[in-house]
Design goal:
Blueprint: H1 39-59, H2 66-73, H3 77-84, H4 87-108, H5 119-136, H6 138-143, H7 155-170, H8 177-187, H9 190-199, H10 204-223
Length: about 220
């Protein structure tokens, strides 16, 4: 399996503990995490999210409604509303669902995306993985995008930023690491990916090659 490919989201875990990086430091929790649930509630929630994910894949996020999810999961509409509150809550839950698998891949998965590879290789693999993740769930990321005043501070983005910062430091990158990390993060924003792939018609492979080039220009001298 390609370690850079976007992971398929597994059922959400019962625990709401935050992921930790390879040094054991606690990273920020995902946005919208709920308190631990009973095993049957976890299964029911996963069933609803799997139905919602199928609808998004087949019809697009614009067609996703609480009624459609209820029908696809063969439950009453009230069950969906009780679990997610409203459509915004459902969209956020779907993002959290995919983010968990994605985060686990780069925090604890096999190298070069996960621990065990040199920092520069992990950074290159991380960008490719993120581009594929964002592309696979692009409509969902765009629909769930927070307002401008919160867009850059939401927990999933902070996890990615923390990871990039850690890898830049491990690679002994020259310059202001905090600003370098923010610059690299800008390349991975859903709005830019949407603009480049759907409005300008660029192939995802071109964006992936561009990311590898950007990493080489950013940390190449340090790595050498």
């Amino acid at each position: 399996m390609d370690p850079s490919a976007p992971p398929q989201p597994p059922p959400p875990p019962a625990s709401s503990s935050a992921p930790a990086d390879v040094a054991g430091r606690s990273l920020l929790p995902l946005a919208g995490q709920a308190p631990p649930m009973r095993a049957d509630a976890v299964r029911n929630r996963a069933r609803l999210l799997e139905a919602a994910a199928r609808l998004v894949a087949e019809q697009g996020v614009d067609k996703l409604t609480m009624e459609a999810v209820a029908c696809a999961a063969s439950v009453g509409k009230g069950t969906v509303f009780r679990r997610f509150g409203d459509r915004t809550g459902l969209l956020q839950a779907l993002l959290d669902h995919s983010e968990r698998a994605y985060q686990q891949a780069f925090l604890t998965g096999p190298p070069p995306l996960g621990p065990g590879a040199p920092a520069v290789e992990r950074l290159a693999a991380f960008g490719v993985s993120t581009l594929r993740q964002m592309s696979a769930y692009l409509d969902l990321y765009l629909a769930g995008d927070p307002p401008a005043d919160r867009r850059l501070s939401v927990a999933p983005r902070q996890v990615r930023l923390t990871h990039i910062t850690m890898l830049l430091r491990e690679a002994h990158a020259d310059g202001d690491v905090a600003l370098l990390a923010e610059t690299l993060m800008g390349y991975l924003e859903p709005a830019l990916i949407h603009h480049l792939t759907r409005q300008r018609g660029m192939a995802l492979e071109r964006l992936e090659a561009g990311w590898r080039d950007l990493v080489a220009r950013t940390v190449g001298p340090a790595a050498a």
